[in-house]
Design a protein that fits this description.
There is one protein chain. With 353 residues, the chain is an alpha+beta fold. The protein has three domains: 8-99; 138-250, Alpha-Beta Plaits, CATH 3.30.70; 257-346, Arc Repressor Mutant, subunit A, CATH 1.10.10.2840. The protein contains 14 helices and six strands. It has helices at 8-24, 30-45, 50-64, 73-115, 120-129, 154-167, 190-203, 217-238, 252-256, 260-271, 282-293, 298-305, 309-323, 330-346; strands at 137-144, 173-177, 180-186, 208-211, 215-216, 244-246. Strands 1, 2, 3, 4, 5 and 6 form a six-stranded mixed sheet that branches. The protein is elongated. Residues 116-234 form the CdaR GGDEF-like domain. This is PucR family transcriptional regulator. Residues 284-340 form the PucR C-terminal helix-turn-helix domain.
Length: 353
Amino acid sequence: MEGPVISDDHLEGYARILADVCATGRRLTREELESLRSQGERAAEEGHGLRGLVRQYLSATREIWPGLPRTGTDRLLAAIEYAVDAFAEGHERAQRLAVRQEEAARREFIDDLLYGRSDLGRLAERAERFGLLLARAHAVAVAQGDRLVDDTDPVTRRVEGALLARFGQRRILLTTKGGRLVCIAPGDQDEILAFFAKQAHAATEGGRVAIGQAHPGPRGVVRSYEQALNALDMAARLDLDDPVLRAGELLVYPVLTRDREAMADLVRGTLGPLRGARGGAQPLIDTLTAYFDSGCVAAEAARRLNLSVRALTYRLDRIRKLTGADPSEPMHRYALQTAVIGARLLGWPAKEL
């Protein structure tokens, strides 16, 4: 049982209030109610639970009762109700404030962590409060669905519940940023982020998840987070179908676009002639994309495009005549495929380069 937290002075004041109410029939004054609320706030700040506090109030009431006037029982019960209600209101008010302050501190920490702000030493100290040890390597996974989510969204709660049920109190931080789900986990525990990806994909009803590489230290979290975001961006621009993307498997794309001007030159020089085709360049670029994605198997590429093999072959021959490069020839294939990837990343031909 919790020890006493209501001071003798306060109980004496409480007794005077009840006695006066019984004698006069008045209601509790605004000052009396605010005093009770303040007492409830102080009790909450000291860490005392409301259930035990209410029990103490009722116990104090039982001790006071014999000395009260024998008239006005209804008024007395009403006064007790108002007094306990005011005390509980103050307690709950302090609890809500504490929750808001904790949420604000958590959000500030997450912003500083994911954006690489704040002093690193101070950031590491704050991280322990939220379950992370930044001295070790961490990896970050980011899930994006059709709609934005926040920390109170049912999707977030569902994924969080699944993670807690599976991994308990391991050092995992689940949060949201920019409407996306974000999970930070130790870099040597890949099973956590793999499980997160599965749960987030289901909870977002088919959303896409990207997992950054593991990197050490506070800056490593930022780097892994940025890798995951870049992977999501790449997947959207390349129209990748994979529900789970690993940044380490997509590193070739940032390399290809590091020199944007050189890539633009390659796209214009290699694929520019396709603009002269009937219907423009886009259908032929889609043909090359399906052809390369299917391992240069014409039948599979035709199936993906809902074409006959004969129609696909005609398109490939048209590409060869316009560009001078044969997609079936290994020497030409690499340049064509690189140019197609570049076109998709740069948004060509919809955007001028």
